Amino acid sequence: MKIIIASDSYKGSCSTLEVAIAIEKGIRKIDQKSEIIKIPVADGGEGTVEALVLGTGGRYEEVEVLCPLGRKIKAKYGILKGNTAVIEMAEASGLTRVNADELNPRITTTYGTGQIIKAAMDKGCKKILIGIGGSATNDGGSGMAQALGASLIDRDGKEIGYGGSELSRLYDIDIKNIDQRIYQTEIIVMSDVANPLCGPSGASYIYGPQKGATKVMVKELDENLKHYSNVIKQKLGIDVEKIQGAGAAGGLGAGLIAFCNASLHSGIEKVLDVTDIDQHLIDADIVITGEGKIDNQSVYGKVPVGVAQRAAKYNVPVVAIVGSIGEGASAVYDYGVDAIIAIVPKPMSLNMAMENGAKLIEQTAENVIRLLNLRKPFRNQRKV
Questions:
Q1: Does the predicted model carry a pTM greater than 0.85?
Q2: Per-residue pLDDT at 270 exceeds 50
C-alpha cells in the first residue's frame, strides 16, 4: 500500500512536519511494509515557508527587517530551486511580531515585508511566492512599496509615514525610484482570502478588529484604503478596489498588485503545485491529511479540502485527522474528504490537547490503519 501524508500544521501545537512524523509513527505501529510519502503542505499562511523548503529541498535565509512597529528583527525566508524565493509576510509584518497590548493597525506597517522581497531579489531570485496570512497591518501594502523605493507623497510634497492612518494624507505616488528588478520578477501571492480591499467585506471591517481596531478605527481605516485605491487608480492606472483577494493581509494584496504586478492564487493550490503532489497521487492508495480544526470554513482554500480535491482527480480516498471538529465540518464531504477523525479520545482542556498533540495524532493514525486493516481476511489469530 502507498500512503500519502499531506497535512497542515496544528497551530500552536505541531508543525506540518511534526504532524507528518506523528502520523507515520502511528502507521508503523501496525504496518511496516507500506510505502509512506510525507509531503509538507500549507495554505499560504503560517508554515508555508517551512512546507515548501522541506517539501522541495530548499534552504533558509535570514535578513534584518523592521517589524510592524518599526523595531529591528531577524526574519526568515526560503530559497527553492530555480531562483525561487518563498516568503511569509507574517514573518516580518505579522500578529506574532506585536505584543497584544501594542496592536494598532493605524500605525503598523508592511515595510519589513518589502525588505524581505528586496533581500530575495538581492539573492538573484526571479520568482517570489508570498504567503500573506496572519498580518498585523492595515496599510494596503504602502509600507512594502516604500521599502522597495516607491514614494507616497502628501500635498506638501513630503513622504507620508507608516500605517493605515497615514493613507488619508496620500496625494501622489512616484515610482521612478522603485527597485526596477521588481518588474523582472514574477510575484505570486498565495492566499485563501477573497475579500476586496474596501467595504463591509473588506480588509478593515472583516480583519481590522483582530488587529486591535475599534469600531471608530475600522471606519477610518476603510475610508483610508478607499482613498488609497483612488490615488492608485489615478496615478498608476490600476483599479485594485474590487479585485477579489486585494483585501488580504490588510490590503497587502492590493499593494502587491499595484506596485509589483503580482498575481493572486489559492495558497493551497500553489503549494501543491510546487511540491508536485500529483506525481505521488497517481498510484497512491490513500491520503491522510488534516488541520487543527476542521469546520465550515475549511472549504474555502484550507489544506484538507485542497488536498482532497487534488486526490479526487486520481480517485484516491482521503482521511482527515484533525484536532477538533467544528460546526459545519460535514461540508468537506462534498469536496473529496471521505472521513474525519478527531484526535481527542476523551474530555480534556485545549491546553492539554495542544501539549500532547503529537502523541494524540500518532494514536489516531494507528487507529486509522487498524480500521483499514478490517478489510483484510481474519486469520483466527485473535485471543479469546
A1: yes
A2: yes
